[in-house]
Specification:
The complex is a heterodimer of chains A (about 170) and B (about 120).
Chain A: H1 2-26, E1 39-40, E2 45-48, E3 54-56, H2 57-60, E4 66-72, H3 77-90, E5 95-102, H4 106-116, E6 122-126, H5 130-134, E7 142-147, E8 150-156, H6 161-171
Parallel strand pairs in A: 4-5, 5-6
Antiparallel strand pairs in A: 1-8, 2-3, 2-6, 4-7, 7-8
Chain B: H1 2-32, H2 50-65, H3 69-80, H4 95-120
The chains are: A alpha+beta (about 170), B mainly alpha (about 120).
């Protein structure tokens, strides 16, 4: 009895390990930070792209309006893909689109906006990428929907038609 | 006079250098315990990605602001969650992770102990 039990239990253990590893193969190992929602806009000093003026983020995102913060860069290919969607969002007067230019040069960023259009009401200049960390972002493009000084939705990666529809539903 | 001047120079330069060296060791200690989220399997210290480089600047700034190691970890934890730390804190999400090795150790020990007693009998 004992002799039969040992090979059987080893067999079962191997089967369990096989299932776990096989399942692990199918899962993506790219980690996406938990997207918390309904948390306060991080308060930090930032530089504005046009004037080089230092302002607090709280001043940019005034409490009573709906804002959309988009982190972008001229060297980022997916940012080019999502740009038409941002231009579409700009048409909505109840929503203000704010840009955060991430690790870029002013010259390249200006060329990018001249070529594809400027959807932003204001642009934050984050040439070191440290402001994006305050927002819990880890790359470009990334976007945040802000209402009454609170982040209500976070979009990781380029925007698409579905996300635009969702943002519009918040405006109504 | 010359000796006195030399002594004064050394006296003023030395503490500044050691302070900088302290900050550097603290910085490398912290960055070694932070996970690079865009290049998995590497720490911020090892990585040269855009994200890792920005994080290194933030760690530097936080050290200069006078934040302690623990405060810096909790700052990043609040921004990116537990996953950013290689050494996650003990809380309701991680207690299984921390206690499992202990559990295995005790169960294994108990099995050995029982076998040992049975053999002695």
């Amino acid at each position: 009895m004992k002799n039969k039990f040992l090979p059987f239990s080893i067999f079962i253990i191997f089967i369990i390990i096989f299932i776990i590893l096989y399942k692990g193969l199918q899962e993506t190992n790219i980690y996406i930070p938990e997207s918390k929602s309904n948390y306060e806009v991080p308060s930090s000093m930032v530089k504005l792209f046009d004037t080089n003026q230092s302002v607090n983020t709280i001043e940019i995102f005034q409490s009573d309006k709906l804002y959309f913060l988009n982190i972008w860069s001229s060297w980022c290919v997916p940012c080019r893909e999502e740009h038409p969607f941002l231009m579409e969002l700009k048409k909505n007067k109840q929503l203000k689109v704010v840009g955060m230019n991430y690790k870029d040069t002013k010259k390249n960023a200006k060329n990018f906006l001249e070529e594809l259009g400027n959807p932003y009401d204001k642009i934050i200049f984050d040439n070191k990428g440290t402001n994006a960390i305050e927002w819990g972002a880890y790359g470009v493009p990334e976007s945040f929907l802000i209402n009454k000084n609170k982040i209500i939705k976070k979009y990781i990666g380029p925007l698409n038609q579905q996300s635009i529809e969702e943002i519009k539903s918040y405006i109504k | 006079m010359k000796i006195l001047r030399l002594f004064l120079i050394i006296f003023f330069i030395l503490p500044v250098n050691s302070l900088k060296a302290d900050n550097e060791t603290l910085k490398s200690k912290i960055t070694k315990n932070l996970r690079c989220l865009v290049c998995q399997g590497q720490s911020i210290y090892d990585s040269d990605s855009e994200f890792a480089n920005s994080l290194k600047i933030v760690v530097d700034n936080k050290i200069n602001e006078g934040l302690s190691e623990k405060q810096i970890y909790s700052y990043f934890q609040s921004k990116y969650g537990d996953w950013i730390l290689y050494n996650p804190s003990f809380n309701k999400n991680t207690y299984f992770l921390w206690l499992l090795p202990l559990l295995i150790f005790f169960v294994g020990g108990a099995i050995i102990f029982i076998k040992f007693i049975k053999k002695q009998k």
